[in-house]
Each structure stands twice: as structure tokens, then as C-alpha cells.
Protein: peptidylprolyl isomerase
Organism: Dryoscopus gambensis
Amino acid sequence: ELGIERRFVPESCPRAVRPGDFVRYHYIGTFPDGTRFDSSYDRGSTFNVFVGKGQLIAGMDQALVGMCVNERRFVKIPPKLAYGSEGVPGVIPPDAVLHFDVLLIDLWNSEDEVQVQTYFKPEKCPRTVQVSDFVRYHYNGTFLDGTLFDSSHNRMRTYDTYVGIGWLIPGMDQGLLGMCVGEKRIITIPPFLAYGEDGDGKEIPGQASLVFDVVLLDLHNPKDGIAIENQLVPESCERRSQTGDFLRYHYNGTLLDGTLFDSSYSRNRTYDTYVGKGYVIAGMDEGLLGVCTGEKRRIIIPPHLGYGEEGRGKIPGSAVLVFDIHVVDFHNPSDSVSITVHYKPSNCTVLSKKGDYLKYHYNASLLDGTLLDSTHSLGKTYNIVLGSGQVVLGMDMGLQDMCVGERRTVVIPPHLGYGEDGVEGEVPGSAVLVFDIELLELVSGLPEGYMFVWNGEVSPNLFEEIDQNHDGEVLLEEFSEYIQTQVETGKGKLAPGFDFEKIVKNMFTNQDRDGNGKVTAEEFKLKDQEAKEEHDEL
């Protein structure tokens, strides 16, 4: 009778051989004395056959039923279930008992379909693979017995392809449908949906079932545009970015599976660029339009609006990009200073003008609210002569026409502030500045071009009064002493906010026309006299 000894049975046996199944197995055939008469191993190829259809000797047809893939059986087949009284001339004698050591490699049925087993699925799955989508995935490809024949992991490169348009074997086209990014599944494909009777001519033999362990990393469709997910929009949004604006923003850049490829935070510096001008990839150009300062949004960019098929640096080809951005500030090169008055005293008749000496408090911040500086923390005012270049141009403009006690907010674009370079360690490059200002004191300045004016009539013998030793020459010491006396007695006034010695020296130098360190009566002229002489000459 037929004898079956199960020498190895795998722990997992999801499927056993039934009549009508197609199997691939290895075997060694011997006589009872151990003499070998045949072996599939010697031929380097499995024996491939349908079970229960009379294509095998009856004993083997029976012995294979119930076997699992990777199971090993030792089978004793009597002559009546083998080659009987005739045998096989030259190979198997008449009435021979045959022994077969069988290892089942593969098993399938013509009615099989693609089998999909998902063993990990992300909690969030906003989109699944559809026909004509382009996917990037990693896989391990094995036969049904677990033998590895290919792996994208070994090549350290994803497999990138369209789905459902014939670029893949039919079984893989089916098996990838419905997957989420990050999902892991096992796709088992019968040979008639894989490489069929002939195999691939290399690693995959004919009639082989294939098992692919797949993880989906990326997914898009050539028709996709960018996708925007608003994560935080400030309640107050007075202005949204437009084409031509200059933005400063932070970002984390990841692939669709969450792999980080770049981050401005790691460089501790914002990314600064014009929007809508082609300075960034097309998807980012579009995704940065319509944002508010302080807004956080996620921008998902398909590869044809990103770095395309070639990729760049750490970004692989055909990769979908995900940017989580935080807009720090933006401006337009055409922007001027913006002034918002919060309080103005009812008695506001004297307004600040160029040349006035101002004392004021301020809080300076970036557009996102980051504090840069504050006079309040220093416990003293900031003092300047308006219009003299002692502050950035935008502040000179923002302090104009202000009265004592007034409070206002002055917003200064970078081209009227500290420009592209900023102030190292203090003000970032291309930063919009916000100053909250309170004017505490105003000393009226002199008319433009004057460093000293008389409060009354000018003496007709002015040179003689300055020339105290009456030697016909005025030295700097004499000139300085005379001007100081006029200021102290209220007869004259110096331009406020400047160093006394510097102003006096400047005035003296203007009078010392030959530069010899002395002023003579012929050199000495008042400003209105200089203007008259120039006019006469013209």
C-alpha cells in the first residue's frame, strides 16, 4: 500500500494541495536499496504538474494531496500505483517499489485570484491608489516557499511606476489598488497573473507564484495640483501675500511617508524669497500665495510641481513633497512706512519736523511679535535729531508730524529698515520692523542748513566782538567762547541734539576759508551774507 511519512511540516499552512491544483516540487526518486533513479535537483528545475488529472503516477497523485508549501514527505509507492509489471525500460524494472523524497515549493489553482493581506495601515488615510496613479514603493519579492528573488531595499531605491496602465504584471496592478501611503501589505500573485509559463527568463521560473511584501511610500496623479491644509490662521489677518511679495518663513520639508529631507529650523534661519516670480519650485510659488503673517499651513506638492522625475539632493525622483510652513513676515518692495496712531493729545499744535530734537520710548519687534529691543527695559529714552540720519530712514519718516504725548505704531519694510543684511545677532535680514512709539519731549530745531541762529538783532560789529584781543584774527578758542556766551545768555541758539564742540568747530571751519586756523574780517560772513553774494555772482 501507499506509505506517506511527513518528515517536516511548517508551522503555518494556509493552504494544502487539492485535486486540480498545480504544484511545483522537488524530489529524489530511489529504489528500496537506496539506488537513485531520478532527481529534479539534478536537472536544476522543479517538477511542475497538475494534481489529480492523471499527469502523474497514481501513487504520487495521491501522495501530494494535503501537502503544504515547504512540507517534506517521504513516500513509498507500490508497483500497482507506480509503473506496474511493465516498469520503464532502462530506468525502472518491473514490479518496482519506488521511494520519493518530496519537497513542495509552490501551489496554485487556475481559479485563484490575487490575494492581499494588509498587516499595517495608518490611522489616517486621506487617499488610496487608483488606476493611473503614480506610486513609489519598496518591496521584497519571494516565491511561495520564502526564497527571495528580488528586493528594492537591497538596491536602496524605490520602485516607481504607474498603476493600472500595463507597466506592471497584472497581479501587481491589482494588488496595489486601494493602498494608503505608509500601508504595508503582502500581495500573493498566481503565475497566470505574473510571468506565466515562461517566467521572466532570469530569476523567476515558469509557473511560479510570487509573493510581494510591499510598503507604499508615495502616491500622486499627473493631474494633481497642490493641496493646502490650513493648520493655524491668525484671527487678525489684515493682509494676505500676493505675487511679487517678499516672504520670510520657516519650514519642515518631508516626503509623503514622513521622511525629513530639509528644515529651516535646523539652520536657525528663515527661508526668504519672492513669491510668484519663479524663485522657488512652482508648487511652493502657488502654495505661498494668500498667506497671513503668523499663519501655519501644510503644502503638499506633486513631483511635476516640485523636483520632477530627477529629484534633487535628498529628494528622490518623482517624490511628492510636504512642506509645513510658518510665515514669519512678508512685504512688497513698493511698500512704504505704515503709521497707526493710537493716541493723540487734544492740544497738538507743535508737530515734529526735520531738525527737531526728539526724546521717545519704543518697543521694537518683528512682524510675528518677536521682541527685538525696548527702551523701557533700559530705563531711558532714545534721543535723536529728526532727519539727520541717526536712525533708519523708515524711523525718520515714522517720527514726522508727531506731537508730545502721542503714541503710534510704525511698521517699516526692510528696504527702509536694515535691508537684506539686517544687524548680526539682533535683526534678521529682510525683516519687517514694528515700533510702538511714545514721544515724550520735542525741542524745536533750527531752519534747515543752520547750526546756530540769533534770538534777536545781530550786532553790526560782530567780528570785533568775537575778536576779543583785537588783533584782527579770530582763533577757534575765541570763537567757541563767544558762541557759548551767546547761548548761555539766551542771545543765540545752537541746533539741538548735537555735540557743542563739534558744531562750533564745524561753524569755525566754514568761516576759515583759507584753512589756516584763523578767521579774518575779510573771511567772516553771516549765512545770509553768503547767500546774497552767491546770488549777486549768479
Notes: The domain at 115-220 is CATH 3.10.50.40 (Chitinase A; domain 3). Residues 533-538 have pLDDT under 50 and may be disordered.
